[in-house]
Write a structure and sequence with these properties.
Helix content is about 55%, strand content about 10%. By secondary structure, the protein is α+β, with helices and mostly antiparallel strands. The structure holds protoporphyrin IX containing FE and 2-acetamido-2-deoxy-beta-D-glucopyranose (2 copies). Pfam families: p450.
Length: about 475
């Protein structure tokens, strides 16, 4: 068949399906509005086409429009069908809390391709004892007591990144990715492993291209290449592990924590979790930083306030004749900058939602969530609810002068799987913003207001800017 006949054929098939849709729907979708068979009932909503479900609608537009229109139509809890899975989505803080705090009823769930790519031993995919053990180790390496010691190393990475952007037009997101990657490696491997940086970077950049590709493992496909890069990464990690074993002194970084004798983790488990942490740490933090640059650029008053706050920290250090390097204590004196970060996390809500799967039939507020269904707390909808955050689309850091009510603000999730890296993320953002605002000015280039999705919301084209030294 040539292209044209394939086109005609698919148009015809589509047409047939369209005619048959009401009939198919009658047989295949449980009727949401009837209480006749079961009590409790499924939440309201539609399941869309069998198999394809409403995936097309979700991915063909800004996903937030999809969620918002569903919420408007059906309320704060509704059912739908994406990527072949029936699911329940919820935008109520109470329901989100219910789902996130009951780990025994709702387990983590990811597409199989992601599991293959990150490695099935990575923390995200687990629950119970193994999860608790990993979590303890990860939290230990990223808690304030530990990361306090690497503030000046993070600062070195920040200043050298900024220097390399001087006088150039840059893609903010790409450059921020490089910064957050280097900070992630520092927190995982300590300072010794700079020599592996380039190799790790090269492999990881190939690997990530496969994250969202079709999981077809044939020579030439993106997926195949990224699986190969995955193997090479594991080899580099094996080399690092064996060097460390010869050195035989304990280190406080994440790798040291994973390698502790009494933990008994295998090399594969360590490798999967290190790749997992890089994955969790890099693009998330880089996209938030990109949004911060955008919002600061659009809100001159906020930028002034942040710049003054940061300059006064710099001046105070100079006057006291203190060592110029930033300290943990300095980063605790940045309330205005902190609120800018909080508000950016709210408005941009880069992780719009998370996934869980019901491990048994669960009843919530009279609604049935059947075993095996996915459950999605919609963080973004909660963060953009006008009842919780008046004028939700407005960027206004001052709203965080008052602490939000519990479970209304969850940029780092909550409960058993809440982000263990949140302190590090905030720290590296503060350090970068300190140097950015005190030493540089920048202007945005090109189209100003587009947003791209994939997988995180990002300013169009990664926010191209031109950066120069302040005079
Ligand atoms: C601003 C940047 C970041 C944001 C917005 C963010 C957000 C989140 C959220 C919402 C979760 C929970 C997902 C769920 O419950 O399903 C999570 C989990 C996680 N994050 Fe972050 N994160 C960020 C940066 C980081 C960094 C820098 C690290 C590592 C240093 C990190 C490591 C992790 C890990 C390992 C998990 C999985 C925890 C578990 O399953 O127990 N994240 N993150
Ligand atoms: C289904 O049952 C619940 C409680 O039993 C009731 O509140 C609700 O109105 C019923 N829905 C319909 C569509 O009949
Ligand atoms: C997480 O949940 C607990 C218990 O419901 C609550 O006290 C806390 O405020 C929540 N955290 C956030 C960030 O909402």
């Amino acid at each position: 068949m040539d292209c044209y006949s394939i086109f005609c054929f698919s148009a015809f098939a589509f047409f047939l399906l369209f005619l048959l849709r009401p009939i198919l729907k009658f047989f295949l979708s449980p009727n949401s509005n009837s209480n006749s068979s079961d009590n409790p009932t499924l939440p309201p909503g539609t399941l869309g086409w069998p198999y394809i479900g409403e995936t097309f609608q979700l991915y063909s537009q800004n996903p937030n429009v999809f969620f918002a229109s569903k919420q408007k139509r059906y309320g704060s809890i509704f059912k739908t069908h994406i990527l072949g899975c029936p699911c329940v989505m919820t935008s109520s803080p109470e329901a989100a809390k219910f789902v996130l705090s009951r780990a025994h009823l709702f387990k983590p769930t990811f597409p199989a391709s992601k599991e293959r790519m990150l490695g099935k031993e990575a923390i995200f995919f687990h629950q119970g004892d193994y999860h608790a053990k990993l979590r303890k180790l990860v939290l230990r390496s990223f808690m304030p007591e530990t990361i306090k010691n690497i503030v000046s190393d993070i600062e070195t990475i920040a200043t050298s990144s900024l220097q390399s952007w001087e006088g150039r037009s840059i893609n903010t997101f790409q450059e921020m990715k490089s910064f957050t990657f280097n900070v992630a490696l520092l927190s995982i491997f300590g300072k010794d492993e700079v020599m592996y940086r380039e190799d790790l970077k090269r492999c990881y950049y190939i690997l990530e291209k496969g994250y969202n590709s079709m999981p077809i493992n044939l020579p030439g496909t993106l997926f195949h290449k990224s699986m190969k890069a995955r193997k090479e990464l594991a080899q580099i990690l094996a080399k690092i592990l064996s060097t460390r074993r010869q050195m035989k002194h304990d280190q406080k970084d994440l790798l040291g924590s994973f390698m502790g004798d009494k933990e008994g983790l295998t090399d594969d488990q360590i490798a999967d979790n290190i790749i997992g942490v890089i994955f969790a740490a890099r693009d998330t933090t880089a996209s938030v930083l990109t949004w911060i640059v955008k919002y600061l650029g659009e809100n001159p008053n906020v930028l002034d306030a942040v710049t003054q706050e940061q300059q006064s920290i710099m001046k105070r250090k100079e006057e006291c004749g203190e060592d110029k390097a930033l300290t943990w204590a300095d980063t605790k004196k940045m309330p205005i900058t902190c609120r800018v970060i909080q508000e950016t996390l709210r408005v941009a809500s880069i992780l719009s939602f998370t996934f869980r799967e019901a491990v048994e039939d669960v009843v919530y507020e009279g609604y049935l969530i059947p075993k095996g269904w996915k459950v999605l707390p919609l963080f973004r909808n909660i963060h953009h609810s006008p009842d919780i955050f008046p004028e939700p689309e407005k960027f206004d850091p001052s709203r965080f002068e008052v602490t939000p009510k519990p479970n209304t603000y969850m940029p780092f999730g909550n409960g058993t799987h809440a982000c263990p890296g949140n302190e590090l993320a905030k720290l590296e953002m503060l350090v970068l913003v300190h140097h950015l605002t005190t030493k540089y000015r920048w202007c945005t280039m090109g189209a100003k207001n587009g947003i791209q999705y994939g997988p995180f919301a990002l300013p169009q084209n990664g926010l191209p800017i031109r950066l120069s030294l302040k005079i």
